[in-house]
Amino acid sequence: MSRMGEIFAHVYKIAKGQSLVETALTAANYPLSGYYVDVSKCERFHVLIDLGTIHGSDTPIFEIKQADSATGTLDTISATYAKHTCAANDDGEMVMLTIEVDKLATDHHFVSCVVSGVSNGSYGTIYFLLPETTLPVTQATAVCPAASQHEFVG
Fold first, then answer.
1. CA distance 48 to 30
2. Residue range 87-108, pLDDT digits in tens
3. The CATH fold of domain 14-136
4. Which among 3, 32, 110, 112 would be 20 to 30 A from 25, CA to CA?
5. pTM greater than 0.85 (yes/no)
């Protein structure tokens, strides 16, 4: 598949797990209930976790779970392939998960990243990259306003 001419902001809708990168992770859902990410317009989606400093007493676990609505009960997708356990010395590493929407349960096209194993001040940023099937994608202005999208191409 050729990627010539690709403009990132036109191909991937971006959804953030949490609002502020400087806020320590807690055992919670990212994003919270009511804001689960809708992946219904994707064939697959990607979750990118940029690990910051991990406290030596923490063992962060990131698991992508599915629900039937933006406020629904989160269910396991795969305890093996949709989950990553970090070590305390994984500071500065990236975690990448790719999940096919067809692997989700019927009518479960909302997802969230469930974080556990953190309570001492570990940091990380969670992004959902959504290559929607209809291009160009429409970015949420709170996440990626048009004035923040730049291209120097052609």
1. 12
2. 989 999 999 999 999 999 999 9
3. Jelly Rolls (2.60.120)
4. 110
5. yes
